[in-house]
Every structure is written in C-alpha cells, then in structure tokens.
Amino acid sequence: MEHLENKEETTDMSQQNTDNKSDCVNKHHQLNIKVFGVGNAGCRVVSRIHNVGLNNLQTIGINTEAPALEKCEANERVLIGVNATCGMGTGGDPERGKNAAAESAQQIRTLCEGADIILIVAGLGCGTGTGATPVIASYSKEAGALVLCMVTLPFDFEGGRCMRQAFMGLRYLNQIANGVICVPNESFSKLVPKGVTFYENLNLINDYLAEGICSLIRLLTYPGEMNTTFGDLCSMLREKHSRSAIATVSAKGENRALQICDKLSTHPMLEKGNNFSDAESVLVNFSSDGDITTDEVRTIMDFIKRSAKKAFFKVGESVNPQLSGQLNVTVLTAAPAENPYNQQQQTQSAKQSLQEYPESYSFQSEEPSSKSIGSSIPAPAPVVSNEQISSIYSQKNPANIIKMPILKQAKFDFEVVSHARFEKTSPTIHKGQNLDVPTYARRCIKLN
To answer: Least CB-packed of 89, 278, 290, 317 within 10 Å?
Structure first.
C-alpha cells in the first residue's frame, strides 16, 4: 500500500512538474510588445497600428498636446508634462518636451514594465517627438526591454532650425536605443505623384511607418519551420546602437520573386538599396501560405547578397494561410551608427552625460550640422581644443605624410654633326648660346 501511495505521489509530482514546464514555455514564447507613439506624428502612426488589431500588442499614445491626444486611437493615452505645458504642446521647443517627459517619469516607467520589446515611433524636429523620445527610450532600457526607434526627419521646407533640432535628437537616440530606423520625409516625395495633397502625402508616410512596425511584429509572432525570434533581434541590435531600416514588399503570380527584387531596389525605407551596402547584419523573413519555392528564395537572397556583401544574414520563414498565393518579404538591416561623437574624448563625455539621464543633456548648446551621417543624416563638425590645434601645427613632419624623392631630369651627351642646309648660314648666337640648336639638344636634356 505504501508503495502504491508513493507511486501515486511521484506521478502527481511529475505531472505538476510537466505542467509547470509547459506554463514556463508558454509564458516564455508570449512576447510582450509595446508600441509608443510620441508627439503628433507618432500618435498618428500608432492609431493606424492599433486599427490593424495585432495580437499580443499594446499601443500607447504619448503627447503634450491634449486636443491632438484625444484623436489618437490606442490602448492607452498619456498626457505628459501637464505642469510644464498645461496640455497646450511644447511650441516646437525640445527642451520643454524633455522636461515634460521627465515630469511624467513615473507614469512612463510604469508603462514600460514587463515589456520584452518597446517600439517607439516619433517625428523629429519639433518639441515633443525630439525632446521626449530619448527620455522614453532611456526609461524603456531601464525596464530591460529591447528598444527600437522608428523616427522621421523633417521636410526641407520646414527650415534649418527644425532640421538642426532633429539631428540633435537623433544623436541622443543613437546613444540610447538598441536600433534606430531613420527615414527622411523627403525620401517619400518621389513616390507621390504631382497634384497629390499634402494631407495625402502625410498619410502615405504614416502608412509606410505603420506597415514596417506591423511587419516586424508579425515576423516575431507567426510560426514557421525557420522562425525569426526575439533572440535574432537581440543579436542584431542589442547594445550596438545601430542604424536600422525595415521594409516589407509583397507580390503575386509566377514572377513574384523578380517583382519583389524590383520593389526592394526602389523602396524608400531602404534608400533605394543603399542601406544594404553598409549593413553588418540583414534579417530576411519570407511569409506565404506555404507555397514558396526554393528557387524563389534563392533569387531574392542572391539579389540582396549582391548589395550586402559584408553582412551576416539571418533567414526566416513563416506560414500565414490568409495570404493565399501572395509572398511577403520583410527585410531588416543593421549598420553601425556613423556617429562623429565616437572619438574617444567625445564618447566618454556622451556616456558620462547619459548616466544622469534625462536631466543632463541639452538641446540648446549644439552647433548646426555640416557633415552627413550615412546617406541622409548630417552631423556637426568635431570639436578640437586649442591644445590639440597647437599640437597639430607644431608637427613638422606628421607620421602619415611620406616624403617623396625629388625627381631630376635625366641627360645624355651627344655632338651636333651637321646643320644640314643651314651649314653655310651664320649661327644665331645669344649670350654665347647657339639658338639654332634645339633647346633639348643644347642643354643635353633626355626626352622620354
């Protein structure tokens, strides 16, 4: 009897252990993904993502302007900086946006809790998106989440000050976020036909951004034989502060692989394929109803590999029965952030300032940008101290300058035998030189 009781207890315990393991597995595979839309532009994109209705996704709209926040469709809406802005916005001042986020720090930290991935969408250049986004990114990293930011740069007609503020905000984001997907608004202008209203142009940009984020979420959640996992994203982006780009294209029919290659080569999010050449890592995910062939995969991957010659590739495949003959391809690239502040002295000062985030950084002490980062991101000139300038000018022979030997013209000796038909003519003598003799012969100069 005792033996039977012990056996039953052992069976119950093993069953409980199995149940616990299955619970842990289910809990582990259910990613907690949150999307933060910051500012007016970010809230518009979040509204589109919210209307898609993806599972295991929480959308959050954050703004300093109460009337605009009321139009945002999201699971949660947070008005930050009530004391700093009184719900009337920042007036295009990033300092006020930064202070508003710092004022609502506890609310933001609470929203970040428990998230595995936090995607932040914002438009850089104005006050809330530029000033508050780096603060929210820092709180997200404190919560232990993988932080990806998708931001836009202003239109050219918005002016130099707006563009300069956007570059400063981008600098801080590159120091904090795991990956930054930066898209200039001007890159979409080539896709918009003439006569399209400005409102429709903005909607096109918002749709592209929303499509990119939804594609990223789908490739993490849809099952397949070759899954693209959360760990793949971590290996590509965690602690690398990379420049990232994401694009999704689709096609149907017999030549759908070639159609996808053409769309990737002209996609604005990929800068017409230029982002491939700088990429260190490229993640490619194929999604179909299960009818994708090996030849189609090889055709698309050969096209991408020709452009991204130095990249490490991660290829995934997922099955979505609703596609019914349609092939979707999502591409995520990660390249090192070409930050002019990565010189030793400036990097140390940047890291030092970020340790006391967000109070330590300022948008008021930066200089206009003059150098370009990557294909479209200008950056300010490096700061050189007076001591460094004196040291440079005091160097008579820098190590990187190689002295070239002084070349001398080779000569050969010969004797003039005859003056031909001018033999009986008196020579033209000037200062003892016979000018009738060619200069090269008179001076014994060897001709090459």
So the answer is: 290
